[in-house]
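Need tokens for this chain, all 289 residues.
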Amino acid sequence: MKEKDKKEKSFFSKLHDKYRLVVMNDDTFEKKLSFRLTRLNVFVFFGTFSIFLIIATIYLIAFTPLREYIPGYADFNTRKVLRELMIKTDSLENELNRKELYIYNIRNIIKGNDPVVEYPDSVEKKTDFTIEKLPRSREDSLLRAEIESQVQYNRWITEETSSRKNMTFLFPPINGIITNYFNPAEDHYGIDIVADKNEPIKATLDGTVIFSNWTLETGYTIGIQHANNLISIYKHNSALLKKEGSPVKAGEAIAIIGKTGFLSTGTHLHFELWLDGRPVNPLDYIAFN
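Here are the structure tokens for all 289 residues:
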């Protein structure tokens, strides 16, 4: 027992033994730093430092974004964000489908087909076509200046059947000779205007291009959505100057007259106006020269 007590006493007594830690210059043996230490001081320092490291690590893992990098850690906030993003994605997808169905029905109207309620799965939603681009010439610049300076617009006379009380002005798409008139009984929902070759087609009103592509029957065709649910359509062009989604101003050149498409019999413009989804006679709204 005495030997055991002696050993324990000697161990605890050694904890209080003092030591000196000296940092010296190896070349000059000059003393730079000196520390008085005991074994107890060293144990306390390293023990406290270890506890601090453990607490700091637990804090970083539990209360900082670093926990997201731990494999298998469940982050409920991330799941909530992902759920909200999925809901927004579904809403955007539904809205995109509605817009594509709307554009598809506009194309059906342009082609003379009936509108549909659902977008057919057999039809590709996006098809790229190469549209001929014309270089800007001196004559084109003069034409643009002439159109911009023109102030005589045709008046859109409100009819008794129309609920619109405001007055709107429509610009004639082209000056020429009308060779075929509006006749819905024969499925001719617009008028045909003959003009010189390479004459520019102008937008009849401010709006946004909703269709600008090639069709088998009507060739290069462009359609513009205007205010008050009015749509203007220009068919059989030789080239298109505007793309889908482009904003246009009344009197701005949007195409070049041509004779493209199987239904074309010569160089002319087939011009249509659709109001509230129904074709109307352009001569009731525009005074052609």
